[in-house]
């Protein structure tokens, strides 16, 4: 699309109501005989028309000049977004200044020329008639014409904004620097129309009544004729103003309705053009901000879904097959991604690392730390370090990478099926529960308490291992604090370690594969909600 100087003449043509009202006033003065009484000839009328056109076309040229230069110098408006937005935001104010000067220049011209012609031709001309002409010319040329011109300029700018919105302009910027709300505000516009076409003409007509009251018959007839001219011009101008304001508001509300339609249908990529720098513009910008925010939210949901998928890929796909043992893991996050982690890492010698960890915090930061932890552990498993050396290495790495105040609690064990034993380290983690079943069927719980602080807090820590034996029927339940900190329905109580111990004893004889589902069901019945912490379980049971 290319803009040319034809756009200037389109702008001039949209000002046709000015010329119509000018000819209306001029024609009425000829019909009622006022022109003849003042000695205004057809030649003088043509000269008046030429001066009128010269004044207002010059005002239109000066108003349009910045926009004309911008349009002529750019084939691609989207590359000059700020330029167009500033120029069109300034357009009503520039129009007000130029047409006010043009209107009063033409009014002064008429106030000087018409009485001078009447006096030189020895026509009847008294001071009441002179005051009447001053009031009529001042109102029509100095007030009514600039008001119409500014309104029509706003209508033109609105249409141009709608045209330029196809290039992505006027979708998010509402200029504060050029936001002249005394001209464009939707709450001010009705009062301005009422002032120009109602109050001022009424006051002038009241003066005409006062002037005619003390005048002779000829003067009173002249004043009455001028009152009719003023009234007709005022009513016509009010109709033009109301029509154009109504049509502009229909265009603006149609775009807002389209935006609301997009919003209700979830089409958040659409934008509403800001056609007016007023409260309607603020509403359009608010809609655009809402749609942009919702679109970003949708994009974020897609990113979160992808991140959750990636994080799930870091967890074990299935439990390893170990002679005499059954294993089961489970995780549920309160957000799309979380900082809980569990893993089974099978070593070359047939032993297996059992890991459960809880990264401080939630969401993306915790998930990134969890991914880093998983990568380091998988790398260390290849060299088959003793778990205390692996823990020492993890601690040093996390101290160097974690932000201040962040840490990781970790329970890490090496299950040794050939000896039915387990060596383990608890670095600040909630104590896993080892359930022993005696020959008499009694159950005894042992808590594998932490003996060292969490990882990532203190450098140069040396972690020491403990050892536990697995008898037939023994079950290990390792978990994160999302289990014990699950809230009740009333929100004033937590599940707690005491309830967990009682629950574990009650379900000691269940298959290990069903323990996570059973525990989750009981936690939900207790009152657990999505607002509670991440929940992770790791269960190991010796069957034979």
Q: How confident is the prediction overall: mean pLDDT?
A: 84
Structural class: alpha+beta
Rg, Å, rounded: 43 Å
In percent, how helical is the residue content? 55-70%
Query: What is the CA–CA distance across the termini?
Result: 82 Å
Order of helices and strands: HHHHHHHHHHEEEHHEEEEEEHHHE
Overall domain count: 2
Shape label: rod-shaped
Number of helices: 15
Largest β-sheet summary:
5 strands, antiparallel
Percentage of β-strand residues: 5-15%
Number of DSSP strand runs: 10
* Major β-sheet strand ordering: 1-10-9-6-7
Stretches where pLDDT is under 50 for at least 5 consecutive residues are 173-178
Topology:
Elements: H1 6-13, H2 16-31, H3 34-38, H4 42-72, H5 81-120, H6 127-164, H7 181-184, H8 189-213, H9 217-264, H10 279-314, E1 325-332, E2 340-346, E3 352-359, H11 363-383, H12 387-401, E4 408-416, E5 421-427, E6 433-437, E7 443-447, E8 466-469, E9 475-479, H13 481-484, H14 496-506, H15 515-526, E10 535-542
Antiparallel strand pairs: 1-10, 2-3, 3-4, 4-5, 5-8, 6-7, 6-9, 9-10
């Amino acid at each position: 699309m290319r803009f040319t100087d034809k756009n200037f003449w389109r702008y001039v043509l949209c000002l046709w109501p000015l010329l119509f009202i000018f000819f209306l006033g001029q024609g009425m003065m000829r019909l009622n005989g006022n022109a003849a009484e003042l000695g205004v000839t057809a030649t003088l009328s043509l000269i008046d028309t030429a001066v009128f056109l010269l004044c207002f076309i010059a005002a239109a040229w000066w108003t349009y000049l910045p926009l004309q230069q911008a349009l002529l110098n750019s084939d691609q408006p989207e590359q000059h977004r700020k330029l167009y937005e500033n120029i069109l935001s300034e357009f009503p104010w520039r129009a007000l200044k130029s047409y006010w000067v043009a209107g009063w220049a033409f009014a002064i011209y008429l106030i000087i020329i018409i009485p001078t012609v009447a006096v030189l031709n020895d026509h009847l001309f008294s001071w009441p008639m002179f005051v009447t002409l001053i009031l009529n010319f001042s109102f029509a040329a100095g007030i009514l014409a600039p008001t119409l011109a500014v309104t029509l300029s706003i209508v033109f700018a609105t249409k141009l904004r709608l045209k330029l919105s196809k290039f992505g302009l006027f979708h998010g910027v509402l200029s504060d620097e050029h936001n002249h709300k005394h001209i464009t505000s939707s709450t001010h516009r009705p009062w301005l129309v009422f002032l120009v076409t109602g109050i001022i003409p009424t006051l002038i007509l009241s003066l005409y009544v006062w002037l005619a009251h003390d005048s002779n018959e000829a003067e009173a007839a002249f004043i009455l004729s001028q009152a009719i001219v003023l009234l007709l011009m005022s009513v016509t101008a009010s109709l033009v103003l109301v029509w154009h304001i109504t049509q502009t508001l229909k265009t603006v509300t149609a775009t807002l309705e389209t935006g609301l339609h997009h919003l209700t249908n979830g089409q958040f990529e659409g934008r509403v053009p800001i056609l007016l720098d007023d409260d309607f513009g603020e509403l359009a910008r608010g809609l655009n901000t809402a749609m942009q925010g919702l679109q970003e939210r949708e994009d974020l949901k897609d990113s979160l879904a992808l991140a959750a998928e990636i994080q799930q890929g870091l967890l074990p796909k299935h439990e390893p097959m170990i002679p005499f043992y059954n294993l089961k893991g489970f995780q549920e996050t309160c957000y799309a991604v979380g900082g809980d982690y569990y893993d089974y890492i099978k070593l070359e010698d047939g032993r297996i690392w059992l890991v459960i960890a809880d990264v401080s915090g939630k969401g993306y930061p915790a998930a990134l730390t969890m991914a880093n932890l998983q990568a380091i552990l998988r790398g260390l498993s290849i060299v088959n370090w003793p778990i205390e050396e692996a823990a020492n290495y993890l601690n040093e790495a996390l101290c160097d990478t974690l932000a201040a105040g962040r840490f990781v609690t970790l329970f890490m064990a090496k299950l040794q099926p050939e000896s039915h034993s387990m060596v383990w380290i608890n670095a600040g983690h909630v104590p896993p529960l080892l359930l022993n079943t005696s020959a008499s069927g009694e159950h005894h719980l042992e808590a594998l308490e932490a003996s060292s602080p969490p990882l990532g807090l203190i450098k140069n820590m040396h972690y020491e291992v403990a050892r536990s034996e697995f008898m037939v029927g023994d079950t290990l339940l390792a978990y994160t604090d999302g289990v014990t900190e699950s809230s009740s329905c009333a929100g004033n109580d937590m599940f707690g370690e005491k309830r967990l111990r009682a629950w574990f004893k009650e379900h000691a004889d269940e298959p290990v594969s069903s323990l996570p589902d059973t525990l989750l069901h009981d936690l939900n019945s207790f009152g657990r909600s999505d607002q509670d912490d991440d929940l992770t379980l790791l269960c190991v049971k010796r069957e034979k």
